[in-house]
Design a protein that fits this description.
Elements lengths: L3 H40 L4 E2 L4 E2 L10 E10 L14 E10 L5 E8 L4 H12 L4
Length: 132
């Protein structure tokens, strides 16, 4: 686990890496969602398409109302000043969820590996205004 000083240095040097990795992971997860969705459409030929949304048949089989996929990646600073020890590695998750009903919506969250599951669920609930 990196020290507070190391984290301060990491924050400045890792920001662009985080953004690039987040974007790359979102594209990968989206590809998984699209592949799953295409497979589902081939299995369910009675799905009705229109220009704004996909209306699913009543007996929702296969994909279900939510699909989730996550990717873990690590970042370390490019120019680490302390040559005596290796640069610390920070681990992050990118988690994507595909909500099918009432129409397909995707949401992605990037978080440090130490974040609790409760915080992840809160982020997804806030994204769709589902907090009651």
């Amino acid at each position: 686990m990196p020290t507070h000083t190391e984290v301060a240095h990491l924050n400045s040097s890792l920001h662009s890496q985080l953004i690039k990795n987040f974007h790359r992971c979102c594209l990968s997860i989206r590809s998984v969602f699209q592949h799953t969705w295409e497979k589902r459409e081939r299995r369910c030929p009675d799905v009705i398409h229109n220009s704004t949304q996909v209306n699913l048949r009543k007996n929702n089989t296969g994909l279900g109302p939510v699909k989730e996929h996550g990717i873990l990646f690590q970042c370390s600073p490019e120019n680490w000043p302390d040559q005596k020890k290796p640069p610390p590695k920070m681990s992050y998750w990118v988690i994507g969820r595909l909500f099918v009903d009432p129409h397909p919506q995707e949401f992605y969250v990037c978080l440090h590996d130490s974040v609790t599951e409760v915080a992840v669920e809160l982020a997804f609930k806030l994204s769709f205004g589902l907090i009651t």
